[in-house]
Each structure stands twice: as C-alpha cells, then as structure tokens.
Amino acid sequence: xxxxxxxxxxxxxxxxxxxxxxxxxxxxxxxxxxxxxxxxxxxxxxxxxxxxxxxxxxxxxxxxxxxxxxxxxxxxxxxxxxxxxxxxxxxxxxxxxxxxxxxxxxxxxxxxxxxxxxxxxxxxxxxxxxxxxxxxxxxxxxxxxxxxxxxxxxxxxxxxxxxxxxxxxxxxxxxxxxxxxxxxxxxxxxxxxxxxxxxxxxxxxxxxxxxxxxxxxxxxxxxxxxxxxxxxxxxxxxxxxxxxxxxxxxxxxxxxxxxxxxxxxxxxxxxxxxxxxxxxxxxxxxxxxxxxxxxxxxxxxxxxxxxxxxxxxxxxxxxxxxxxxxxxxxxxxxxxxxxxxxxxxxxxxxxxxxxxxxxxxxxxxxxxxxxxxxxxxxxxxxxxxxxxxxxxxxxxxxxxxxxxx
Length: 405
Known about the structure:
The chain has helices at about 50-65, 85-100, 110-125, 155-170, 185-200, 220-225, 240-250, 265-270, 290-305, 315-330, 340-345, 390-395; strands at about 35-40, 75-80, 105-110, 130, 150, 175-180, 205-210, 230-235, 255-260, 280-285, 355, 360, 380-385, 385-390. By secondary structure, it is an alpha/beta fold. The protein has two domains: about 20-155 and about 290-370, Rossmann fold, CATH 3.40.50; about 160-285, Response regulator (Rossmann fold, 3-Layer(aba) Sandwich). Helix 7 (about 240-250) links the parallel strand 8 and strand 9 (about 255-260). It is globular. It starts with about 35 loop residues before the first strand and ends in an 8-residue tail after the last helix. InterPro entries: BCAA_transport, Leu-bd, Leu_Ile_Val-bd, Peripla_BP_I.
C-alpha cells in the first residue's frame, strides 16, 4: 500500500506520486543507514490514551513513507520513549534521544508540563522539536520564534480558550465556573480562560482546582451551581474529565459542559458511562465522510491497529502530519538534519502538503512556530458515543479546506 496523501518531494531523488499510483525511486542502495526519528509521549499512565494514539500516527506515517522509498532510500526508524506524563521522565527521554540515540529530530510531548520541563534540552542542543499534541500556550512562548527550535502542530490553548469564550457568549451565557487540574496545563488553561472570558464580559463565578486522580467532584459542581454558573468549563486531562461529567449529571446541572480538545478523548466517554453526552470541545479534526483524506486515513489507521480503536483522532492525525512535514523539510535541506537547517526549512516551507488535519502551505514563519490559526478549529460534541460537529452548518462546511491565516 502506498501513501494516499500524495506529496511531491521537490528537488529530491524520490518522486512519490502516490495519489496517481506513482512509484518511488531510491537514490541510495538498499541497506542504507536508517534515519532515526525521536518520539516521546506517554505510553502508560493516565495520559496513555492520547500518547499511544500519537505513536500510532507516527508509526503509520513512517510505514507509508518507507513503502515509497523512505528518505532518499534511507528507511525511517522511530525511536520511542515513554515519558509516563512525568516531567522528569520526559526531560530524561529528551536527553537520551539527543545525546545517546543521535536522532535527526524529535516529535513529542502530549502534556504541557512535561514539554515545558524539557524545552531547554532541545534549545541548548539546537535540536528540532515538533510538538504534535501538547497545547499549553507557554510551550511556543518560552523562546522567541526567531531563535527557537520548538514548533507545534496542535492548536495552542490561547486559541482554544478564545474559541470557547466566544461560544459561551454566542449562547448568551453570562456566568461560568472553571474546573482546572493542578498541573502546568491547568495553570496555563485557567489563565487563558480568565483573560478571554473577561474580554466577553462573562462573569467567572466559581473556580475549582483539582488534583490528578480526583474521583469525586460532586460537591464542587453543586457549589458551582449554587454560585449561579450557567456552564462548566474544564481544563484537564484524563480520567478526571469523566469524573466531572458524572458529577454534572448527579448534580442535575443543566448547563453545558465545555472544554478544550481533551474532552474528546475516547476514555472520557467510556469512563463517563455516557454522561459526557452533549459535552462540547474544541477540535482540529472530526470524522467526516465528505473528506476523502480523513476517511482514507481512518481506514488505514484501522488496518494499522488491527481493527482497534483510537484514544484520540486528533493526537494521531496531528502526529501523522507532523512526521510528513518534517520529512518534507528534510528534503528541502537536501539532507542537512541539523536543527538550524530544519528550522529554516520549516519557517520557509516550499511545499504544499495535503495533510489529514488540513492543507499546510506556509504553516510556520520566522516569527510564528504554531501551525494553527483561529479559523482552523471546530466545535465538536459527543453524540451517542460518537464525535461529531456541534453545529450543522460546520458539518456542511467541513469539506472546505481551512488554511492558516
């Protein structure tokens, strides 16, 4: 099977006309030295559902690239590390990948706090890091883009928070309660939400900070209800989101449960016992029968999984696109895998890549290392265990490609 995404590698020896059934030609003999790609995301623990999904996305991309010749005849190899959603484990993994494994570049991090703990490792070694999943705003703010080796494929939380606040206002709601976990992700999400709600003159009537592993939030929801909250907005990851969904139902809270992309994790629905029905979340991608690229990707992913299910379509698709983008940048550098060369190539991207999430033409610039802009995100919802568009008009417009503004 060949990669149906159909990218062209300009000025490269491999020509991959996949969409039309083209044949790849290797520029180097069989047995050429593999190109090692670092990968670090949680494979165990409370964040494993989207960490494993990210790994599956990376594996599928590498498999398809290798089937059409790899990088100039060199097979791509994924060197994987499990950070367990632990900041110290993530930092250690970053050091190992760069100094011991000698990977060409690294794709990694699902958790904001883990990414932030490791950023200086990549920066000090001038090693390119592409973040496919973690969304905390500070990740691409730690260093000025002009000198940073950190890029991101996921919609940052400042975009998601603005989108959520806008939707709260659209619904005519005036009072909101925020539930945020006690992590760096929760910290940055809460700060972003407070700012955006204030811009829309929406009152923040109750704030709850909860620990990872919290298993009872009923009293907190009841307190939010008593404070007059008309919506619950959550910033967290993992099982706690399902706990909040169950507590909302038990408290008979009639307002919407809203949040960033993490509310779309399959584990949230499964652990909520169906109480996540109607929950609203920001999405970069949703299952869409009218989008050929996405349907093809999901079919190929099901085969890759042996018929299994993904914990997160977003994590898998964004990571899949990340591998393709950096590989294209490597062709643009004519094989120079140094951080400065890849950084310059991504900032001055010469290809148009028809990805799964969207079509990337100029995803980055010397002053902007985030691939997403506000016009590229959607509002999703859980309906009978399936993710879909919250607004029918969005579903009708889904076939239109949204490019970065």
